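Appendix B, example 12.
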Amino acid sequence: MTSVGVMVNTTRLREHPEMVTPAREAIDVLARQTETVWVNEEAARLLDRARLAKSEEDLAHRADLLVVFGGDGTILRAARLAAPRGIPIVGVNMGGFGFLAELSTAEFPEALPHLLAGRYEIDERMMLEAEVEVGAGGAQTLLALNDMVVTKSGVARVLRLRVSVNGQHLASYPADGVIVASPTGSTAYSLSAGGPILDPRVAAIVITPICPHTFNSRSVVVDGRDEVMVEVTAPEPEATLTVDGRVGITLSAVRRVVVRAADQRTRFVRLGGSGFYGILRTKLAWGGRASLEGER
């Protein structure tokens, strides 16, 4: 490994000044032990390491490994940037929930020698791509690790939605929106909306309506090779497609989104800590009888 890109959530740095020192120290250790280290531009300025500054796009284009200091939102952004080249990502949690992170800031120094020596495993995660028609017969393709969400901004009016799988009509309902999630995304927004939890190794797609105005609407799990189409059947100028909770485009002119598994995959670095079910148990506070008794 000759080059490492470091992405730091600058909002976290501003809100939590105590994070500045461990982030700066981690960057300095990387700089001493690798040939090249780059840091996203705004973070480089905040950490007084301006000589290492590169754009986030440059980090993804040049680095052999991305080290991401932040919460799940920062890791999701890094995943979309890293996917075209298949760059491995190691997440260091500076956020709250931190479901996707592998390490805490306290654990990072001890893990660094293993990272630099390549003593880790790669956990590949399925990604989604959404195709949206734009202009005269053109199409825009968007990439996501967690989910594609058709919803609306503005006043609280429902959307009229029609969902099809491989061209077959699955359901129509008035709802606040619909989530099309990957297995990784099944523990994110989809879970909050009542969807099931999928092991990330399962090749499947989860379709979850958001606050449907019918009592019989349920999440549906379909094969990962299937193609899911979401249509806004009644004109709605504020209908929007949101990708991983960050990137959004209007559907006012098109009103149709096609979602399928992407060719790209996210590659997470794993150092042999807790597996998926251990993380799930910890993050969702699924304690056993012993732990419950210990809390009394």
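The chain has a mean pLDDT of 89. Residues 20-33 form the longest helix (14 residues).
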